Amino acid sequence: MPAVMKIWKQDGLLGFFRGNGLNVVKVAPESAIKFYAYEMLKNVIGDAQDGKSDIGTAGRLFAGGMAGAVAQMAIYPMDLVKTRLQTCASDGGRVPKLGTLTKDIWVHEGPRAFYRGLVPSLLGMIPYAGIDLTAYDTLKDLSKRYILYDSDPGPLVQLGCGTVSGALGATCVYPLQVIRTRLQAQPANSTSAYKGMSDVFWKTLKDEGFRGFYKGLIPNLLKVVPAASITYMVYESMKKSLDLD
């Protein structure tokens, strides 16, 4: 609540939507790349297993993790700029312009700065995407087999499966997301800049304890869970509309 009150006091209602435009631009290609890569890798693994339609849990985990990694690398610079835009201080109540912020990062920190925090991001994204996609497919198959008796899952079942899978994946990898966000948010020329992943880990552990790695988990789940469930529902609807099942 202190964070909510601080944002409201400094930036008003619009402060809660800072960086949302860039986030919308980022999410569309990220989701498209992730789902395309996932379906493609499932087909490749199935062909390698003599044409099996069910590649099993291990196959789904691998396909989901690799799909998440490919998508994350493709859109990572936008993710970093979005994080900087959300966390930088307002100048007299004015939000920094996207173009100005991007130019400042390029000029003062160099092009490599757009990939700062990529390693912990990938270390978090690979298990997150693997768990999320695997849990969703597994829950959907179980509901089809034991609840719907081979009928196709409807929107409510898809929402339920997406809710559980999104919450499970996000909670499991949240400490890595904290490390990634702290690396992204800091300017490279800051006197208190972290030196890398291990530096973030030990400073967080020393100053905040293990609870520091789960700071902000509830707001994150409030964002991730509905987003994941709606994404899966739209994904299934588009697959059906395009006759891709």
Automatic annotation (TrEMBL):
Gene Ontology MF: a single term: metal ion binding
InterPro entries according to UniProt: MCP (IPR002067), MCP_dom_sf (IPR023395), MCP_transmembrane (IPR018108)
Keywords, ordered alphabetically: Calcium, Membrane, Metal-binding, Mitochondrion, Mitochondrion inner membrane, Repeat, Transmembrane, Transmembrane helix, Transport
Homology family: Belongs to the mitochondrial carrier (TC 2.A.29) family.
PANTHER family xref list: SOLUTE CARRIER FAMILY 25
Protein's name according to its UniProt entry: Calcium-binding mitochondrial carrier protein SCaMC-2-A
Subcellular localization, as worded in the UniProt entry: Mitochondrion inner membrane
UniProt repeat feature Solcar, residue ranges: 1-44, 55-142, 153-241
Cellular component, GO annotation: mitochondrial inner membrane
Membrane topology: Multi-pass membrane protein
Pfam families hit by this protein: Mito_carr
Xref: Gene3D superfamilies: Mitochondrial carrier domain (1.50.40.10)
